[in-house]
């Protein structure tokens, strides 16, 4: 195994999209940012130097960070931010993982422009569990605001209103050919007969996305850096924070084929704006306009999302076995949703809030992990509820007296205990799909359904044989998802909705994994350059 050194300079860079130029926060002047390449078992050392006027942190989304929570990155959860002019060295070892993940800023909405790919190759000499592709290609989805993104969120928080939606989606940083601008969209160059592995990353801020290529199917082989049973599809579905490896065979002889990403939202909330497009182009093709897609899923194409999600199964091979915990130590039930609270200073006298079990998480003033490690009192409380205080009809009309509470609360579990969480979507304000991300662990997605979770019959349908393993899972609109994991990583681990608008409104909480006695059961000491608040 190797030690790989990276330098991430956080700098402003003038960037032109949608016919206008503005300075954006970038790593090394790139949008999307540089790719972090490593092999399983390698140690990665990234020196992040902050040259902009914003506080920043970087999160290595999906990297397990065994005992190295100090390198995880969410601001005020595992570290205080890196202040302007300061630097911080993230150091971690990639253990038991190979595949595609992403890194991104983890403070306010800076991840809109501060993100990039993590590519983890298998150990030297270990093949993929599928035929070796001729070539690999990284494809990152994002969103672009014509306005300054930090101003968008700040204004929303002050007014209590929803923030403005983005002006376009992007594929590898590009909206695609745009009227009156000479901008080029993303092009995937292929040769007939060759197979390509697309490492697809959804780094969009607020939108779950469909991805299609005209005239070509995709074979899904991996999600969130875990192998899946291969399956064929003409439409890929991916939530922010999720990653998917898909094989594509260039089985046409010539031509140019449209690539499109379009948003999924099964409620009436308006999303985006502009379907980002690109093209797949066969070598030496001269034709100018690409073959169009026969269909693009409509914005509310829930059946398409279900078909995709239901096809995902872990590989569960001899080499990559699926080990779902059977005995459960903590059986938790979390409602996730958006609501409204009174707000005297807000435009409508109220503001949108989002919560888990009716608690809207308040960011602490020092990092939870520091408070935990040094036993600093008064930063958080241990009383995050494992169940809703009063059960109600979660997917029906909400009880009128239910107001969201604020708090900085954590849920404590012992090292190596097993945890099941049923994530129940609620119908407060508007029912919406929530991609929930857990730091520090992969979990098994053992079940999902519509309506209220049925504690008697629901578990009977759990898949404990080959459920897909991942770090970010969609909780369906008006329904639920169930996950299981073993708390085998000591530290403080964030759980939140990966739609940045919902995180901002408070849809987040943290687990503390503790009581370690053995040498592998406690977090390592903090690095000497750990930023202070
Ligand atoms: Cu990709 Cu806590 O985030």
From TrEMBL:
Q: Which cofactor does it need?
A: Cu cation
Q: How is the cofactor bound?
A: Binds 4 Cu cations per monomer.
GO terms of biological process kind: lignin catabolic process
Database matches in InterPro entries = Cu-oxidase-like_N (IPR011707), Cu-oxidase_2nd (IPR001117), Cu-oxidase_C (IPR011706), Cu-oxidase_fam (IPR045087), Cu_oxidase_CS (IPR033138), Cu_oxidase_Cu_BS (IPR002355), Cupredoxin (IPR008972), CuRO_1_LCC (IPR034288)
Q: Which GO terms describe its molecular function?
A: copper ion binding; hydroquinone:oxygen oxidoreductase activity
Q: What is its EC number?
A: 1.10.3.2
Keywords attached to this entry: Apoplast, Copper, Glycoprotein, Lignin degradation, Metal-binding, Oxidoreductase, Repeat, Secreted, Signal
Q: Using the UniProt record, give the first listed, main subcellular location.
A: secreted
Sequence ranges assigned to domain Plastocyanin-like in this UniProt record:
13-123, 137-284, 385-516
Domain of life from the UniProt record: Eukaryota
Q: Please state what class of enzyme this protein is.
A: oxidoreductase
Subcellular localization is given as:
Secreted, Extracellular space, Apoplast
Q: What is catalyzed by this enzyme?
A: 4 hydroquinone + O2 = 4 benzosemiquinone + 2 H2O
GO CC terms in record: apoplast
Which PANTHER family does UniProt cross-reference here?
Answer: LACCASE (PTHR11709:SF317), MULTI-COPPER OXIDASE (PTHR11709)
What does the protein in this record do? Lignin degradation and detoxification of lignin-derived products.
Record-stated family: Belongs to the multicopper oxidase family.
The record's listing under NCBIfam families reads: laccase
How is this protein named in the record? Answer: Laccase
Its ancestry begins with: Eukaryota, Viridiplantae, Streptophyta, Embryophyta, Tracheophyta
């Amino acid at each position: 195994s190797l030690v790989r050194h990276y330098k991430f300079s956080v700098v402003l860079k003038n960037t032109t999209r949608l016919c206008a130029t503005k300075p954006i926060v970038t790593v090394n002047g790139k949008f999307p940012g540089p790719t972090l390449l490593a092999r399983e078992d390698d140690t990665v050392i990234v020196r992040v130097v902050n040259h902009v006027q914003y506080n920043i942190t970087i999160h290595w989304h999906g990297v397990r960070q065994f005992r190295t929570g100090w390198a995880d990155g969410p601001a005020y959860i595992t570290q205080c931010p890196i202040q302007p002019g300061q630097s911080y060295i993230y150091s971690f070892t990639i253990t038991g993982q190979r595949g595609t993940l992403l890194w991104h800023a983890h403070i306010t909405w800076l991840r809109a422009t501060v993100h990039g790919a993590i590519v983890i190759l298998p150990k030297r000499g270990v093949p993929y569990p599928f035929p070796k592709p001729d070539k690999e290609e990284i494809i990152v989805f994002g969103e672009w605001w014509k306005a300054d993104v930090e101003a968008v969120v700040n204004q929303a928080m002050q007014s209590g209103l929803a923030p403005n939606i983005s002006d376009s989606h992007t594929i590898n940083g590009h909206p695609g050919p745009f009227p009156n601008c000479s901008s080029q969209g993303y092009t995937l160059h292929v040769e007939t007969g060759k197979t390509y592995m697309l490492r697809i990353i959804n780094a969009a801020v607020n939108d779950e996305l469909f991805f299609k290529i005209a005239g070509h199917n995709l074979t899904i082989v991996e999600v969130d850096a875990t192998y899946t049973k291969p399956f064929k599809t003409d439409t890929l579905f991916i939530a922010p924070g999720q990653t998917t490896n898909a094989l594509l065979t260039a089985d046409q002889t010539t031509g140019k084929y449209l690539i499109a990403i379009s948003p999924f939202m099964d409620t009436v909330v308006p999303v985006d704006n502009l379907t980002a497009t690109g093209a797949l182009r066969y070598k030496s093709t001269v034709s100018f306009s690409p073959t169009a897609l026969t269909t693009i899923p409509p914005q509310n194409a829930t059946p398409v999302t279900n078909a995709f999600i239901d096809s995902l199964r872990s590989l569960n091979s001899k080499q990559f076995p699926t080990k779902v915990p059977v005995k459960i130590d903590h059986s938790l039930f979390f409602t996730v949703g958006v609501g409204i609270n009174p707000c005297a200073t807000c435009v409508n006298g109220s503001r949108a809030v989002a919560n888990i079990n009716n608690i809207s998480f308040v960011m602490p003033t020092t990092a939870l992990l520091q408070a935990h490690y040094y036993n600093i009192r008064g930063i958080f409380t241990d009383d995050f509820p494992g169940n809703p205080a009063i059960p109600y009809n979660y997917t029906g009309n909400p009880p009128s007296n239910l107001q969201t509470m604020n708090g900085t609360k954590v849920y404590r579990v012992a090292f190596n205990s097993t945890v099941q969480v049923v994530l129940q979507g609620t119908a407060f304000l508007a029912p919406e799909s929530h991609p929930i991300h857990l730091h520090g662990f992969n979990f098994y997605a053992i079940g999902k359904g519509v309506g209220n979770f049925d504690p008697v019959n629901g578990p009977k349908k759990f898949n404990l044989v080959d459920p897909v393993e991942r770090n970010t899972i969609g909780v369906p609109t008006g329904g639920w998802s169930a996950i299981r994991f073993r708390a085998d990583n000591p530290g403080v681990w964030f759980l939140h909705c990966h739609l940045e608008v919902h995180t901002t409104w408070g849809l987040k909480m943290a687990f503390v994994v503790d009581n370690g006695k053995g040498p592998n059961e406690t977090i390592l000491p903090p690095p000497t350059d750990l930023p202070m608040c």
